[in-house]
């Protein structure tokens, strides 16, 4: 079998690099839909949803590394995909209890903001809720 | 003579205790310094990446700022959320915002006074008065100082942890950027001590907002071709949409970066201050010990003289 072509996926956050592996394919959820990147893709910039990034483990059929990404963007050039996000966590590192607490808190805040009809607060609470749900979802499947 | 002997002895033991404390504090600061330096290298990778992307993206916008301002204006109408493109637009400057990063506690040598003094210089040199300056104080020392001087302290933040994590400064950073888009200030500087090495730090006042060619750095535009970022990108969904994500993120990372840098300098400065305190304590102890021994010796000499005197009288 010919050697598998690989690209590098690097996830950087202000608190350091979270993920740095080689892979035959990476799947991103961008703001306009799902986007798969194969090696030697042309240079690309895309903004990401608060969702997961799935990175195929080399040499396997359907095993993926999953990383919860908190928005940000992905930049691809020279066969390196760099995800630049405010925060990101690997599936294995997600603290379930903390995520659950964050979800509860966000829900309470959302409730309160709805009652106050404060659209600004509501939107912020929604974003935190989405972050928490994203983490929970990823760690559960 | 006995009383003074006792006194010197007491001073020696108290100085020794102080020396132990400052010695311990020095070790703690040094440990924190190496921790934060490790953390900062991780941040550096992030900052560099975001910078190279922004340099690439913003170039067209900066060269043609007319486009940026018109599209920003149209975007502004549909909501009051933080708008990325707005950060590129220069507004006529009515008020200037200054972020002053100081420490919460003392015992950091000239760290705080240095920042405060230079910031004041900056304010007077720029012909600003207390009316057209808005201070955002990170760290208690700066907050107290500028409040006492009658400056408008719009926001103060205390209790930055020893190794600041991005998550904890996120609220603060968001707040700063919201204030900018609410036009509480029309330009923003950040004043802090930049960490050079463990012995020295230098004061820096950097323009932060609006984001311009100046603070991305003209050298950044030149570097671009060398670092291989000349390739044209495929944009998903569009250049403007991406700029809107990247610009706030860039501003956030800049502010976080300066807090991190200042904190590094604080640990370094604290470590140096405690080192010199320990050294001084050692000096004092050795001179006190000399004094103690001299006093003891002279007491013995007097005693001997007295005894021999008494002996001679008896004979």
TrEMBL record, chain A:
Domain ATP synthase epsilon subunit C-terminal residues, every copy: 92-139
GO cellular component: endomembrane system; plasma membrane; proton-transporting ATP synthase complex
Subunit structure: F-type ATPases have 2 components, CF(1) - the catalytic core - and CF(0) - the membrane proton channel. CF(1) has five subunits: alpha(3), beta(3), gamma(1), delta(1), epsilon(1). CF(0) has three main subunits: a, b and c.
Molecular function via GO: ATP binding; proton-transporting ATP synthase activity, rotational mechanism
UniProt keyword rRNA processing, yes or no: no
Gene3D superfamilies reported for this sequence: ATP synthase delta/epsilon subunit, C-terminal domain, F0F1 ATP synthase delta/epsilon subunit, N-terminal
Protein name as it appears in the record: ATP synthase epsilon chain
Top-level lineage group: Bacteria
TrEMBL record, chain B:
GO (cellular component) term, any one: proton-transporting ATP synthase complex
Single annotated GO MF: ATP binding
Topology within the bilayer: Peripheral membrane protein
SUPFAM superfamilies, alphabetized: ATP synthase (F1-ATPase), gamma subunit (SSF52943)
One Pfam family named in its UniProt record: ATP-synt
Matching CDD domains: F1-ATPase_gamma
GO biological process, one term: proton motive force-driven plasma membrane ATP synthesis
Subcellular location: Cell membrane; Membrane
Gene3D superfamilies xrefs: 3.40.1380.10, ATP synthase, gamma subunit, helix hairpin domain (1.10.287.80)
InterPro entries in alphabetical order: ATP_synth_F1_ATPase_gsu, ATP_synth_F1_gsu
Keywords: ATP synthesis, Cell membrane, CF(1), Hydrogen ion transport, Ion transport, Membrane, Transport
Subunit details: F-type ATPases have 2 components, CF(1) - the catalytic core - and CF(0) - the membrane proton channel. CF(1) has five subunits: alpha(3), beta(3), gamma(1), delta(1), epsilon(1). CF(0) has three main subunits: a, b and c.
Stated family: Belongs to the ATPase gamma chain family.
Cited function: Produces ATP from ADP in the presence of a proton gradient across the membrane. The gamma chain is believed to be important in regulating ATPase activity and the flow of protons through the CF(0) complex.
Protein name, entry field: ATP synthase gamma chain
Lineage: Bacteria, Bacillati, Bacillota, Bacilli, Lactobacillales
